[in-house]
Amino acid sequence: MTDADPTRASVRPASEAWTIARVLKWAADDFRKRNNPSPRLDAELLLSHALGADRIRLVLDSERELSPVELGRYRELIQRRRSGEPIAYILGRREFYGLSFAVDRRALVPRPDTEPLVEVALERTRARSMHGAALDLCTGSGCVAVSFAKQRPTWRVTATDVAVETAELAWENARRLGVVFTLDVLVGDLFAPVAGRRFDLITANPPYIPSGEIAGLDVDVRDFEPRLALDGGADGLDLVRTVIASASSFLTPGGVLAVEIGHDQGPRTLELFEHAGFRDVALRRDYGSRDRVVSGLGPKTP
Description:
- The chain contains eleven helices and nine strands.
- The protein is an alpha/beta fold.
- It folds into two domains: 6-82, Helicase, Ruva Protein, domain 3 (Orthogonal Bundle), CATH 1.10.8; 106-297, Rossmann fold (3-Layer(aba) Sandwich), CATH 3.40.50.150.
- A seven-stranded mixed sheet has the order 5-4-3-6-7-9-8, sandwiched between helices. It has a two-stranded antiparallel sheet with strand order 1-2.
- It is elongated and about 75 Å long.
């Protein structure tokens, strides 16, 4: 850091005081030089977090000078972001499907790309919206399971994850967001915790990044998010194949399976669904018009 770094500022003339407006400009410029994709937004989010204030307050109090303690808190957050740590992990939260989820390094950061998985689940079960049972595999933070449960309060939702600590995070979100009476979180590999049960809907966001591509991911993903939730094997479809091949044994007659995939895995996943006997197989794109969710109806008889 240089002498112009406000996080190491000493006594300065009033004309050089580190006001909210000035420190935000400095931080945004610093992030921009480091190729941060959202420099101004990150600068504002981190300062809001450091001050315990919303972003509107930053505008209203733009000429207020920050105290040394406040600058110190901001410095720590900036250093974490400089290292590549995801902004969601620093803030400890991320919005998904209109809800605020607690997030940390126990699970992937919820992304807008995953919201179409919730949309498909709701659309394809609309005919039975008043009653049903849903299973969410590889639940992570619980963002899909909790979001679905909020929209379908009369359904029973079960979420599974292979990692104990990740399942604990999902349960924390279920409790915070008020769905503990309709959602269960179980620990185990895919379908193992629900042996013998059947569901009207199965959703899954399994790891689907090819192993050879992990090293080339952005640093905030590669070095901070759990590899277990990213690595999908040689072609990225190891767990996708397992889910599709096994799902019929856990679906009620005509039940729905919906799986999130990588942007270039649509054609191959459609083939896997059809080969497994699914009907009315469909592909949904995400908000960036990339292939993202494949879904289908299971056999009419068990």
